[in-house]
Each structure stands twice: as structure tokens, then as C-alpha cells.
């Protein structure tokens, strides 16, 4: 896939910010000024704004779609917005700002290639800003934009912007974030969102939209090892296709070609790709993220949850160390029995140890004797009932991630990144595994 900027390229990005930083207004301004709002939508916003006694349209109403969001003036759930400019198409994950909804940012940023972290110029970098930066770093989001909003309320002062940008950039660097751009904006007035600001001639960088349109996106699938999680086994057993056996799924990464040598994991059996069927037709190759059916040369025992891999293959293991973001109100403690979902495979697992949680302010590792609470980021050790073929998350975001699920009610508890940590410390504690694994 080319990284060239053109009308067919797609950027997935997420927005995050503390409460009242103006994130909904920013997204609304972005949609409005890029002419991505239909006339009837704008008319509805103008009508709702007038009914509230506001003279100008409240662009935040373009994004806060739930009734509870409109009534409270806050963003509650992740909302996906689709828009396009002549230069690029966009999928925007608009995530909430309240601390209790930080877990929603994990959802929004998990597939993002860029994160826009919003701060109020009057307040600067706050705890939630650091938390959002930590989540973006943890999820290996390649590009981060710091949007310093409400510059109109600090008289468009360059020193205010410079101090906030320096503090955030230093913090992001300590997290391992390499690409950070700071942009001074006023979402309400439209400064530097789509059009350059006439009030900040001291800023020589791109507007927010210009950066979104030009930041490199995508990667060359041929540079990544092929990973194909099997979702469904197809055996029609019809007169027309009496011996057909295919494995359907979505290619998570890389390229598969007819004739490639592949390994089926976790069994470790090796074979070759005999055929690829895409949209009812035979193809010579498939690349991520295509959904295809793969046929193998040998009659192997392959089932849902297996991984067909080419190139360097991960070693299946039952012991997993991972950095996790805990999403549930229910704490995650050592000794908990959970289900672990990795790509299309779900297995039983035991939380052997909660090694530590990470202090978002200092990035120091803190003991977690009571486990991880909602929104905590920490390090855990897991033991699974069956071997899993996980890549390191830094090598492959799709096959290096997993979810922990409550086996009683199916609630998602935790998002995990295999092999990821801000720092490595020895783990302690080995609770009884009993019969769960």
C-alpha cells in the first residue's frame, strides 16, 4: 500500500481530551469547515442552538448524538464519523473525556494510526492528558497531535502554547512516542483547524486538517509476516465440490500467495497454500485486511481459532506476560479465572500475578496487592489452558493483542498487549492453578 497522499488513502484517527476541553466542538468544526456536514444536519444544529438561546450554531451538537450527551453537554460513548476531503478519506473515532470513560479510548484508539489529544490552553497538561498519551503509547499509535485549544481565551499567547507543547512532548517522549505535532487552535473560532489563523502568525506549522491530510498512513503488507486467523472451516461436500476444504477469515497482516509455505499454529504442521478464493473467484494472492478463503495442499486438522502463518512464526505458549488496560468496574486480581480471546480463538486462562500498576503521573511502577481497578494500566502474568500463538504487540498490533473476558457473563474485562511494558520488573506470586487451566 502506498503512503502517498491521494483521494483513495484512508486515515483512521481518534480524538481524546478532558471534559470541557472543547473536543466535540473541535470535531464539529472539522466536519463543518471541511464541508462534510449535510444541509439538513446543519439546519437541525442551528435550530437546536437557537432554542437554547445561542446566536451561533453550537457545532458540538454535530457529534454528541445520544440524547444523554445532548442533555448533559458531554460525550459518553465512542462515535465513529466518516468524512472525506479531495485529498483523503477519514474514519474518526470520537472518544469521551470523562475519567470513567477512559476505557472507551482504548476501543477508539486500538485501530487508529493517529491520535488527537486535546488540552485547554488555560489548564495545560492535566492527569487525563497524561492518561490519554499513555494509552496512545501503549496501543502503539504511530502519530500523535497535541491540539492546544481555546487559544482565544489566553489572547493567542505564544508562550502559553510553547510551555504546554514542551511539557507534553517531553512526557510523550518518555512513553516512547516518537512523532508528536503540537498545533495551537481555537475550535470555537476556527483558528488553525481547517483554515490558518490570522491571530497566530507566530505559528508556522500546518493546520490540523492539513496535517491529517498529509501524515503518512498505511504500510507495505509485503514487509509484514503473513498472519491468517481461521474464522470458519468451509466444507460444502456437494457433487460439484466433493473434496473442497477451505479456511475462511480475514488476513490480519502481510501477504499470502499461492505456493507459499505456511505453518498452522498451534499444531506446528507445515504445508503450502494450494489456492485462495476471494469474492467467489480464485486469486493468486491476498493481502491484509482482505477477507478470503485459503485452501491448503495437505489435509490437516485445522479448525476455528488456528493461525495460518508465513515468515517468522511465533512460538505457541501457555505463559503470557503482558501490559494491560483494565476496562471493567470489576477489579482484576491474581487468581481470577477468565477467558482469553486472541483473534478468533478463545481459551480459559488464569491470572497468575498482577505484577504492578503504572502511575500515570510519574510512570513509576506501583504495587497492586488489590489488583487492577477500572482505567488502571499494569503488568500481568497469565497461564492459558491451551497454547496460543501471539506475536509481540510492538511487532503486530492485530496478533499481539487480546481481551480478557468474564466467563460468567461475557463482560469484557481487560485489553492486553503481549510482551509490552513501559519497563520490565520481575513478577512474583504463583497462585494455585486448580482445574481451570
Describe what is shown at a glance.
The protein is an alpha+beta fold and 437 residues long.
Description:
With 437 residues, the protein is of the alpha+beta class. The chain has 3 domains: 205 residues, 3-Layer(aba) Sandwich (Rossmann fold); 89 residues, Translation factors (Elongation Factor Tu (Ef-tu), domain 3); 102 residues, Translation factors (Elongation Factor Tu (Ef-tu), domain 3), CATH 2.40.30.10. The chain has 7 helices and 23 strands. The strands form 4 sheets. Strands 7, 8, 9, 11, 12, 13, 15 and 16 form an 8-stranded antiparallel beta sheet that branches. Helix 4 runs parallel beside helix 5. The two termini are 42 Å apart. The relative contact order is 0.11.
Residue fraction in strands: 25-35%
Q: H/E series, N to C?
A: EHHHEEHEHEHEHEEEEEEEEEEEEEEEEE
The named CATH superfamily of the largest domain: P-loop containing nucleotide triphosphate hydrolases
Sheet with the most strands, sense and barrel status: 8 strands, antiparallel
Distance between the termini: 42 Å
Note the total helix count. 7
Question: Could you name the key traits of this structure?
Answer:
437 residues, alpha+beta, Rossmann fold, Elongation Factor Tu (Ef-tu), domain 3, 3 domains, 8-stranded antiparallel β-sheet, 6-stranded mixed β-sheet, disordered N terminus
Amino acid at each position: 500500500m502506498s503512503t502517498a497522499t491521494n483521494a483513495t488513502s484512508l486515515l483512521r484517527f481518534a480524538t481524546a481530551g478532558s471534559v470541557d476541553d472543547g473536543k466535540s466542538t473541535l470535531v464539529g468544526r472539522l466536519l463543518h469547515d471541511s464541508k462534510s456536514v449535510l444541509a439538513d444536519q446543519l439546519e437541525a444544529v442551528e435550530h437546536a442552538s437557537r432554542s437554547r438561546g445561542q446566536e451561533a450554531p453550537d457545532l458540538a451538537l454535530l457529534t454528541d448524538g445520544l440524547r444523554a450527551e445532548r442533555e448533559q453537554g458531554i460525550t459518553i460513548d465512542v462515535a465513529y464519523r466518516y468524512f472525506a476531503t479531495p485529498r483523503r478519506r477519514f474514519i474518526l473515532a470520537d472518544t469521551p473525556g470523562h475519567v470513567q470513560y477512559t476505557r472507551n479510548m482504548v476501543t477508539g484508539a486500538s485501530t487508529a494510526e493517529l491520535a488527537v489529544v486535546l488540552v485547554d490552553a488555560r489548564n495545560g497538561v492535566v492527569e487525563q492528558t497524561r492518561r490519554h498519551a499513555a494509552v496512545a503509547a501503549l496501543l502503539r499509535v504511530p502519530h500523535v497531535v497535541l491540539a492546544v485549544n481555546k487559544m482565544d481565551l489566553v489572547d493567542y499567547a505564544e508562550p502559553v502554547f510553547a510551555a504546554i507543547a514542551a511539557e507534553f512532548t517531553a512526557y510523550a517522549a518518555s512513553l516512547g512516542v516518537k512523532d508528536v505535532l503540537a498545533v495551537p487552535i481555537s475550535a470555537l473560532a476556527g483558528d488553525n483547524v481547517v483554515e490558518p489563523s490570522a491571530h497566530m502568525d507566530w505559528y508556522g506549522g500546518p493546520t490540523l486538517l492539513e496535517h491529517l491530510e498529509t501524515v503518512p498512513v498505511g504500510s507495505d503488507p509485503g514487509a509484514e509476516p503473513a498472519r491468517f486467523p481461521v474464522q470458519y472451516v468451509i466444507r460444502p461436500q456437494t457433487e460439484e465440490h466433493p473434496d473442497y476444504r477451505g479456511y475462511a477469515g480475514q488476513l490480519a497482516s502481510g501477504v499470502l500467495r499461492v505456493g507459499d509455505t505456511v505453518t498452522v499454529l498451534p499444531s506446528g504442521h507445515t504445508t503450502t497454500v494450494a489456492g485462495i478464493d476471494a469474492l467467489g473467484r480464485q486469486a493468486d494472492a491476498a493481502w491484509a485486511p482482505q477477507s478470503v478463503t485459503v485452501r491448503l495442499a495437505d489435509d490437516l486438522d485445522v479448525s476455528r481459532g488456528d493461525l495460518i502463518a508465513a515468515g517468522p512464526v511465533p512460538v505457541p505458549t501457555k505463559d503470557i506476560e503482558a501490559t494491560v488496560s483494565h476496562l471493567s468496574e470489576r477489579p482484576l486480581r491474581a487468581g481470577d479465572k477468565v477467558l482469553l480471546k486472541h483473534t478468533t480463538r478463545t481459551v480459559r486462562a488464569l491470572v497468575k500475578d498482577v505484577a504492578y500498576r503504572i502511575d500515570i503521573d510519574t510512570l513509576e511502577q506501583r504495587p497492586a496487592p488489590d489488583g487492577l481497578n477500572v482505567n488502571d494500566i499494569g503488568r500481568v502474568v497469565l497461564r492459558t489452558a491451551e497454547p496460543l500463538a501471539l506475536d509481540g504487540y510492538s511487532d503486530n498490533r492485530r496478533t499481539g493483542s487480546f481481551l480478557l473476558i468474564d466467563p460468567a457473563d461475557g463482560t469484557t474485562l481487560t485489553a492486553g498487549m503481549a510482551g509490552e511494558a513501559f519497563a520490565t520488573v520481575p513478577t512474583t506470586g504463583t497462585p494455585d492453578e486448580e482445574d481451570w487451566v
